[in-house]
Write a structure and sequence with these properties.
2 domains; 7-stranded mixed sheet; binds nicotinamide-adenine-dinucleotide; 16 helices; Aldehyde Dehydrogenase, Chain A, domain 1; Aldehyde Dehydrogenase, Chain A, domain 2
């Protein structure tokens, strides 16, 4: 029977190993320290203990990694699709074989509960499998004949790319970006978040053990303003796939402008969960709880803004408060835990101050307690959409509840946001569901369901929530260049210059 003590015992050798080895960069197939020999401590949100000293890279380290990615590009691009596909499947096998180890380390590094992380590692394997199966068709194009021309299109990988990831579910998000980049034939420099660097190390070790050639994938640790910035500014890096905060996305756009960087951004959200009175309220309650508090509410697709129809609002909020009060907050490696510690003391202080801001703005604080980085699910009722707690992404277990009377009002409130990542709609009326889905300003809408990811579908946001889409062919589009080739099929009949009048 798995319990906290068993998990802690299984984690111990991994902690000893990472403490002894440190978290190094990985460049051209070798684990290396930084050029300048600078370090920072990666710590655990569980108890603040140091996990490992970690390389604090600067522009010189990024340059080494970018050069390695450039040197490896030609051979990786030209590797037969069957071989590349086999390597990506072997990486998926390696992830699946170590899913428990990865989940343990990720929980310790991020504070995310075991019950979600165990699956997140397996989803990482699925990302590799899905894109492994796309390798063979990635370069496929179209034939578009016209008089005198056989027009064909093909796709070629854009070149070495940079991948910059955040600290919430870092393992899964890294695979989500890196798998399609490799499938497309790009080489990669990955910079994981400085707050959760551990599982990126495990991932690259798995990839190289699976046969990935040296230099195809390089890892750079360090802070955003140093290593991240240098990556976005490097001339050999042709594109940046970024997951993180909207303000950081704006900074990356500016940093990448001089080198005309192609960018894809998955950014923040303040996603509305719209509950109409005719909905299946029991299912809507489950979805609201899951989408607001699973993963500690540190989730870009969290339904942090509840819009509930006035007639059922009292009943719904009371049921919500009762269930929230029973949510188990605790050690992330305890399989019973539903909400763990937030990523850092700074972040927990920010979340607490948002709760106070909500109260100052006039919202009622219904449930939720805080002890250090452990913040229990918190409900703010009686809120208005113009309050700061209704407009800003809190990125913690805090749900703001706002009431509406009519469908039009629900839509107006839902769309009155700088963000546009997801929307959730609960109603028994199918035509209303379609109407509302069509008018919601969101990149993704889920009707009568929580967020369920299907890998061929587009994932991404509108407005301040992002630029571009992940998933299926959308991912490959980003990592590849479309190329047109026109073949003449009749006498060229080119107008002749230099032959007199
Ligand atoms: P963040 O933007 O602070 O950091 C993300 C990454 O960017 C880190 O690796 C960081 O080091 C790096 N970075 C920071 N400044 C940089 C700079 N100037 N140049 C280059 N890189 C830089 O975000 P975070 O706090 O780690 O993550 C939380 C945010 O991520 C939330 O806003 C959340 O909504 C968003 N997120 C979005 C999605 C999505 O798919 N839309 C998924 C997960 C998280």
């Amino acid at each position: 029977m798995t319990n906290l003590a068993t998990h802690l015992a299984k984690l111990r050798p991994h902690l000893d190993d990472v403490a002894a080895r440190g978290l190094l960069n990985h460049i051209g197939g070798a684990a290396v320290g930084g050029v300048a020999d600078r370090w920072f401590d990666a710590t655990s949100p569980v108890d603040g203990s140091v996990i490992a000293r970690t390389v604090r890279s600067d522009a010189a380290d990024v340059d080494r990694a970018a050069q390695a990615a450039r040197a490896a590009f030609g051979a990786w691009r030209d590797m037969p699709a069957t071989e590349r596909k086999a390597i990506l499947h072997a990486i998926a096998d390696g992830i699946a074989a170590r899913a428990d180890d990865i989940a343990l380390c990720e929980c310790w590094d991020t504070g995310q509960p075991w019950r979600y992380m165990a699956r997140a590692a397996l989803r990482g394997a699925e990302n590799f499998r899905f894109f492994a199966d796309r390798v063979a068709s990635a370069r496929d194009g179209q034939a578009m004949p016209s008089p005198g021309l056989m027009n064909i299109t093909t796709r070629v990988p854009i070149g070495p790319v940079g991948v910059i990831t955040p600290w919430n579910t870092p393992f899964m998000l890294s695979t989500w970006k890196i798998a399609p980049a490799l499938a497309a034939g790009c080489t990669v420099v990955h910079k994981p978040a400085e707050l959760s660097p551990w599982t990126a190390r495990i991932l690259i070790d798995i990839a190289e053990a699976a046969g990935l050639p040296p230099g195809v994938w390089n890892l750079i640790n360090g802070t955003g303003p140093e290593a991240g910035r240098a990556l976005t500014e490097h001339a050999d890096i042709k594109a940046i796939a970024f997951v993180g905060a909207s303000q950081t996305g704006a900074a990356i756009m500016a940093q990448g402008a001089p080198t005309l960087k192609r960018i894809q951004f998955e950014l923040g959200g303040k996603n509305p969960m719209i509950i109409f009175a005719d909905a299946d309220l029991e299912a809507a309650l489950d979805a609201t709880l899951f989408m607001s508090f699973a993963l500690n509410g540190e989730r870009c697709t969290a339904s942090s803004r509840l819009l509930v129809q006035a007639g059922i609002a009292d009943r719904f909020e009371a049921a919500l408060a009762a269930r929230m009060d029973a949510i188990r907050v605790g050690h992330p490696l305890d399989p019973a835990t539903e909400v763990g510690p937030l990523i850092s003391a700074d972040h927990a202080a920010r979340v607490r101050s948002w709760i106070e801001t909500g109260q100052r703005e006039g919202a009622q604080h219904r449930v939720g307690r805080a002890e250090g980085q452990y913040i229990a699910p918190t409900l703010l009722t009686g809120a208005r959409n113009d309050m700061r707690v209704a407009q800003n992404e809190i990125f913690g277990p805090v749900l703001t509840s706002i009431r509406f009377e009519t469908e039009d009002e629900a839509l107006q409130l839902a769309n009155d946001s700088a963000y546009g990542l997801t929307g959730y709609v609960w109603t028994a009326d199918a035509t209303r569901a379609l109407r509302v889905s069509e008018r919601l300003e969101a990149g993704m809408v889920w009707v009568n369901t929580a967020n369920l990811r299907h890998l061929p579908t587009p994932f991404g946001g509108m407005k301040s929530s992002g630029i571009g889409r992940d998933g299926g062919d959308w991912s490959l589009e980003f990592y590849m260049e479309q190329k047109h080739i026109g073949l003449g099929t009749r006498d060229p009949d080119v107008p002749r210059l230099g032959v007199g009048a």
